[in-house]
Fold this sequence. Notes:
Blueprint: H1 14-18, H2 21-30, E1 33-35, E2 42-44, H3 47-55, E3 60-61, H4 64-69, H5 76-82, H6 99-107, H7 113-117, H8 120-132, E4 139-141, H9 142-147, H10 149-158, H11 166-181, H12 186-212, H13 218-224, H14 235-266, H15 268-276, H16 281-292, E5 298-302, E6 306-308, E7 311-313, E8 318-321, H17 323-326, H18 362-379, E9 380-385, E10 407-412
The chain binds protoporphyrin IX containing FE.
Protoporphyrin IX containing FE (HEM) binds next to helix 6, helix 14 and helix 18.
Amino acid sequence: xxxxxxxxxxxxxxxxxxxxxxxxxxxxxxxxxxxxxxxxxxxxxxxxxxxxxxxxxxxxxxxxxxxxxxxxxxxxxxxxxxxxxxxxxxxxxxxxxxxxxxxxxxxxxxxxxxxxxxxxxxxxxxxxxxxxxxxxxxxxxxxxxxxxxxxxxxxxxxxxxxxxxxxxxxxxxxxxxxxxxxxxxxxxxxxxxxxxxxxxxxxxxxxxxxxxxxxxxxxxxxxxxxxxxxxxxxxxxxxxxxxxxxxxxxxxxxxxxxxxxxxxxxxxxxxxxxxxxxxxxxxxxxxxxxxxxxxxxxxxxxxxxxxxxxxxxxxxxxxxxxxxxxxxxxxxxxxxxxxxxxxxxxxxxxxxxxxxxxxxxxxxxxxxxxxxxxxxxxxxxxxxxxxxxxxxxxxxxxxxxxxxxxxxxxxxxxxxxxx
Length: 419
Ligand code: HEM
């Protein structure tokens, strides 16, 4: 039986989004840079071509948000909803140098590995607190009861949000992510604009507080950020950065944690290997990042006529870098769909991107993942999919990939497997 021609597969069809791996494999084999006929997008799926594009940031620009909205005045309903808010500034992820470089320099301090390492006892305490809440039940919906909460509570605390405001904070975080991955209708755009205004007023007040009385947290770093040769951040810039931290950091980390446990559950021999040797935990994190690739796709907009892997791409084209595909490129990763916690080159994955936009939060995400796996596996054993559960499904999002829910069963251990 001959395979469906590539052009007859829509990259955003629910079935492709739910299970993109075979489509990605065919893209890599047949057209690593592919002008997709249904959408007009250029899909970049091989490791080599993705690396070439991310290195050439002058041609493959991150000003995609601006380009997508260019020339369009928002509808009056959206303008009305946005009235009373601060101007939204394109910061790191949606900017190019020199602006992107300036923002990164100013907030970098909050995310350097040495600083992030000091958060470890706190992340560990938080993880135990979350596990305490379900450990006696023998089962957990890991996504909502754990994976989404660990990064959310952590960043909420770092941004000075008290526990009672968590539900509201979570709504903002989910809303911003929703906006990023979907083409919102008018109602969706109005809701998004209202949410941004709400978020801005809440955090403008908090930034003011931290400016007066800095503490040892990320909010204070943003509020007081200065470097010698750069103009300090103004309020709209600081707010846009905070917004971007939520968009970039919460769902991605949650998806990585949940996918990691799902991989371990489906590959008990790999789980046993980690249970037998705690030193495998850092490489487990990298191998999970490679296979999960929570930021499965990322936009670029092309600033001049160019060529990539022999394919001409005209100025103004939109490109989708398929990080999830690059991370399963058989020319880089042997037997790429296999989950192998001992894989030698797991850490050469592109799950955090590469080049000037390399994930600012990578040290924090790695720390949270490592603590999550150490504490979940350390305290609980016999992990398996809940007996009454359907096979877990993926959320349908153009950029971010992750499970909708992950109902698991386990038993409490008498002691950690490593002691
Ligand atoms: C497992 C979790 C995470 C994954 C998979 C991930 C993935 C990525 C990727 C692929 C990029 C590059 C995008 C591009 O090429 O344009 C990126 C950028 C970024 N990430 Fe992450 N991220 C994660 C966690 C975090 C966290 C926890 C934070 C902060 C709290 C964060 C903040 C950012 C920011 C600010 C950028 C933009 C940097 C720039 O453009 O200069 N990320 N992330």
